[in-house]
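Standup notes
- DV: blocked on the single-chain target, sequence here:
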Amino acid sequence: MATTDADTVKEERARQLADAAESLFAAGVMSHSGHANLSARLDGERLLLTPGFVRGLRPGQLAVVGFDGQVFEGELQSVSAEIIAMHSTIYKARPHVGAVIHTHSPSATAFAVANRPLPCRTEPMLRFGQAEDVPVVPWGPRGSDVSVRGMAEVLEQRPTTASVLLANHGLLVFGPDPAATAHLVVAIEESAEAEIAAAAIGGGVDFPPGAQEAVRASIARASS
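- DV (later): unblocked, structure below
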Protein backbone atom coordinates (compact mmCIF):
# COMPACT_ATOMS: atom_id res chain seq x y z
CA MET A 1 0.00 0.00 0.00
CA ALA A 2 1.38 3.42 -0.97
CA THR A 3 2.30 5.84 1.78
CA THR A 4 0.16 8.99 1.74
CA ASP A 5 1.04 12.47 2.93
CA ALA A 6 -1.27 11.91 5.90
CA ASP A 7 0.65 8.74 6.82
CA THR A 8 3.94 10.60 6.61
CA VAL A 9 2.64 13.37 8.87
CA LYS A 10 1.30 10.84 11.37
CA GLU A 11 4.62 8.97 11.49
CA GLU A 12 6.56 12.19 12.00
CA ARG A 13 4.21 13.40 14.76
CA ALA A 14 4.44 10.01 16.48
CA ARG A 15 8.23 10.16 16.44
CA GLN A 16 8.14 13.71 17.81
CA LEU A 17 5.85 12.66 20.68
CA ALA A 18 8.07 9.70 21.59
CA ASP A 19 11.12 11.99 21.56
CA ALA A 20 9.30 14.56 23.69
CA ALA A 21 8.34 11.94 26.27
CA GLU A 22 11.93 10.73 26.46
CA SER A 23 13.18 14.30 26.89
CA LEU A 24 10.87 14.86 29.88
CA PHE A 25 12.28 11.83 31.68
CA ALA A 26 15.83 12.87 30.79
CA ALA A 27 15.18 16.34 32.24
CA GLY A 28 13.94 14.84 35.52
CA VAL A 29 10.65 16.72 35.53
CA MET A 30 8.33 13.73 35.81
CA SER A 31 6.59 12.52 38.96
CA HIS A 32 7.74 9.35 40.73
CA SER A 33 5.09 7.36 38.86
CA GLY A 34 6.10 8.84 35.51
CA HIS A 35 2.45 9.66 34.81
CA ALA A 36 1.80 11.84 31.78
CA ASN A 37 -0.17 11.96 28.57
CA LEU A 38 0.90 13.60 25.33
CA SER A 39 -0.91 14.34 22.08
CA ALA A 40 -0.30 15.93 18.69
CA ARG A 41 -2.81 17.41 16.28
CA LEU A 42 -3.48 15.58 13.01
CA ASP A 43 -5.76 16.52 10.12
CA GLY A 44 -9.33 17.62 10.76
CA GLU A 45 -10.53 16.79 14.25
CA ARG A 46 -8.11 13.96 14.96
CA LEU A 47 -5.12 13.66 17.24
CA LEU A 48 -2.40 11.22 18.20
CA LEU A 49 -2.59 10.25 21.88
CA THR A 50 -0.38 8.22 24.19
CA PRO A 51 -2.05 4.90 25.07
CA GLY A 52 -1.89 5.09 28.86
CA PHE A 53 1.84 5.09 29.58
CA VAL A 54 4.80 7.14 28.40
CA ARG A 55 7.92 5.60 29.90
CA GLY A 56 9.75 3.86 27.05
CA LEU A 57 7.11 5.06 24.58
CA ARG A 58 7.59 3.98 20.96
CA PRO A 59 5.99 5.76 17.97
CA GLY A 60 3.98 2.70 16.93
CA GLN A 61 2.19 2.58 20.30
CA LEU A 62 0.25 5.82 19.82
CA ALA A 63 -3.48 5.82 19.07
CA VAL A 64 -5.35 7.99 16.57
CA VAL A 65 -8.54 9.39 18.10
CA GLY A 66 -11.16 11.97 17.20
CA PHE A 67 -11.99 15.04 19.22
CA ASP A 68 -15.28 13.30 20.01
CA GLY A 69 -13.49 10.31 21.57
CA GLN A 70 -13.75 7.87 18.67
CA VAL A 71 -10.68 5.62 18.35
CA PHE A 72 -9.62 5.24 14.70
CA GLU A 73 -6.34 3.38 15.15
CA GLY A 74 -4.57 1.66 18.03
CA GLU A 75 -5.80 1.01 21.55
CA LEU A 76 -6.24 3.13 24.65
CA GLN A 77 -6.32 2.14 28.28
CA SER A 78 -9.39 3.50 30.06
CA VAL A 79 -7.14 5.92 31.94
CA SER A 80 -6.27 7.61 28.62
CA ALA A 81 -9.76 7.43 27.13
CA GLU A 82 -10.91 9.65 30.01
CA ILE A 83 -8.61 12.50 28.99
CA ILE A 84 -9.43 12.87 25.29
CA ALA A 85 -11.78 15.76 26.07
CA MET A 86 -9.03 17.48 28.06
CA HIS A 87 -6.77 17.50 25.01
CA SER A 88 -9.43 18.22 22.40
CA THR A 89 -10.67 21.22 24.39
CA ILE A 90 -7.23 22.81 23.94
CA TYR A 91 -7.14 22.10 20.20
CA LYS A 92 -10.61 23.56 19.72
CA ALA A 93 -9.79 26.72 21.67
CA ARG A 94 -6.30 27.21 20.20
CA PRO A 95 -6.18 26.53 16.41
CA HIS A 96 -2.43 27.22 16.33
CA VAL A 97 -1.63 24.56 18.95
CA GLY A 98 0.00 21.42 17.57
CA ALA A 99 0.76 19.48 20.76
CA VAL A 100 -0.50 19.11 24.34
CA ILE A 101 1.36 17.61 27.31
CA HIS A 102 -0.07 16.81 30.74
CA THR A 103 2.24 15.85 33.62
CA HIS A 104 2.26 15.61 37.39
CA SER A 105 5.61 17.39 37.58
CA PRO A 106 6.19 17.68 41.35
CA SER A 107 6.87 21.39 41.88
CA ALA A 108 4.28 22.59 39.37
CA THR A 109 1.77 20.18 40.92
CA ALA A 110 2.49 21.75 44.32
CA PHE A 111 1.09 25.02 42.94
CA ALA A 112 -1.89 23.10 41.51
CA VAL A 113 -2.56 21.48 44.89
CA ALA A 114 -2.31 24.90 46.56
CA ASN A 115 -4.66 26.32 43.89
CA ARG A 116 -2.12 29.12 43.35
CA PRO A 117 -1.10 30.55 39.96
CA LEU A 118 2.58 30.12 39.15
CA PRO A 119 4.22 33.53 38.59
CA CYS A 120 6.39 34.11 35.53
CA ARG A 121 9.65 35.13 37.19
CA THR A 122 12.29 33.14 35.29
CA GLU A 123 13.75 33.87 31.89
CA PRO A 124 13.17 30.34 30.49
CA MET A 125 9.43 30.83 30.93
CA LEU A 126 9.67 34.06 28.92
CA ARG A 127 11.80 32.40 26.25
CA PHE A 128 9.71 29.27 25.85
CA GLY A 129 6.29 30.89 25.60
CA GLN A 130 4.75 31.52 29.02
CA ALA A 131 5.27 35.25 29.53
CA GLU A 132 2.53 35.49 32.15
CA ASP A 133 1.43 33.70 35.30
CA VAL A 134 0.17 30.15 34.80
CA PRO A 135 -3.54 30.27 35.75
CA VAL A 136 -5.43 27.66 37.75
CA VAL A 137 -8.42 25.77 36.35
CA PRO A 138 -10.95 24.96 39.12
CA TRP A 139 -11.08 21.32 40.14
CA GLY A 140 -13.40 18.84 38.45
CA PRO A 141 -13.22 15.05 38.02
CA ARG A 142 -10.73 14.25 35.25
CA GLY A 143 -12.37 14.34 31.83
CA SER A 144 -15.72 15.43 33.27
CA ASP A 145 -17.93 18.17 31.85
CA VAL A 146 -17.11 20.25 34.94
CA SER A 147 -13.38 19.99 34.28
CA VAL A 148 -13.70 20.65 30.54
CA ARG A 149 -15.97 23.66 31.05
CA GLY A 150 -13.53 25.08 33.58
CA MET A 151 -10.67 24.71 31.12
CA ALA A 152 -12.62 26.33 28.31
CA GLU A 153 -13.51 29.30 30.52
CA VAL A 154 -9.91 29.89 31.62
CA LEU A 155 -8.66 29.61 28.03
CA GLU A 156 -11.21 32.21 26.96
CA GLN A 157 -10.25 34.52 29.82
CA ARG A 158 -6.52 34.07 29.19
CA PRO A 159 -6.13 33.99 25.39
CA THR A 160 -2.31 34.15 25.45
CA THR A 161 -1.51 31.58 28.11
CA ALA A 162 0.32 28.46 26.89
CA SER A 163 -0.31 26.43 30.03
CA VAL A 164 -2.71 25.93 32.90
CA LEU A 165 -2.57 24.32 36.31
CA LEU A 166 -5.37 21.83 36.95
CA ALA A 167 -6.42 22.39 40.56
CA ASN A 168 -5.48 19.50 42.87
CA HIS A 169 -4.19 17.59 39.87
CA GLY A 170 -1.25 18.73 37.74
CA LEU A 171 0.08 20.70 34.78
CA LEU A 172 -1.23 21.07 31.21
CA VAL A 173 1.01 22.71 28.58
CA PHE A 174 0.37 23.35 24.89
CA GLY A 175 2.49 24.63 22.02
CA PRO A 176 3.20 24.53 18.29
CA ASP A 177 4.87 21.10 18.33
CA PRO A 178 5.87 18.37 20.81
CA ALA A 179 9.47 19.56 21.25
CA ALA A 180 8.54 23.17 22.01
CA THR A 181 5.81 22.02 24.38
CA ALA A 182 8.23 19.75 26.24
CA HIS A 183 10.71 22.62 26.57
CA LEU A 184 7.99 24.70 28.21
CA VAL A 185 7.09 21.87 30.60
CA VAL A 186 10.71 21.81 31.75
CA ALA A 187 10.85 25.61 32.08
CA ILE A 188 7.65 25.67 34.14
CA GLU A 189 8.78 22.86 36.45
CA GLU A 190 12.14 24.54 37.02
CA SER A 191 10.38 27.85 37.69
CA ALA A 192 7.99 26.26 40.16
CA GLU A 193 10.91 24.66 41.97
CA ALA A 194 12.71 28.02 42.09
CA GLU A 195 9.58 29.77 43.44
CA ILE A 196 9.31 27.26 46.27
CA ALA A 197 13.02 27.65 47.10
CA ALA A 198 12.83 31.47 46.90
CA ALA A 199 9.97 31.48 49.43
CA ALA A 200 12.49 30.36 52.07
CA ILE A 201 14.67 33.46 51.52
CA GLY A 202 12.04 36.14 51.26
CA GLY A 203 10.09 35.22 48.15
CA GLY A 204 10.43 35.71 44.40
CA VAL A 205 10.59 39.13 42.75
CA ASP A 206 8.82 40.12 39.54
CA PHE A 207 10.72 41.02 36.38
CA PRO A 208 11.28 44.73 35.80
CA PRO A 209 9.06 46.44 33.20
CA GLY A 210 10.11 45.67 29.64
CA ALA A 211 11.70 42.31 30.43
CA GLN A 212 9.76 40.44 27.78
CA GLU A 213 10.74 42.95 25.10
CA ALA A 214 14.39 42.74 26.20
CA VAL A 215 14.39 38.95 25.92
CA ARG A 216 12.84 39.11 22.48
CA ALA A 217 15.48 41.60 21.34
CA SER A 218 18.24 39.36 22.67
CA ILE A 219 16.84 36.34 20.83
CA ALA A 220 16.56 38.37 17.62
CA ARG A 221 20.18 39.54 17.89
CA ALA A 222 21.44 36.01 18.47
CA SER A 223 19.56 34.62 15.48
CA SER A 224 20.52 37.39 13.03
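- Follow-up: Helices lie at 5-27, 78-81, 84-93, 106-113, 123-127, 145-157, 178-199, 211-223.
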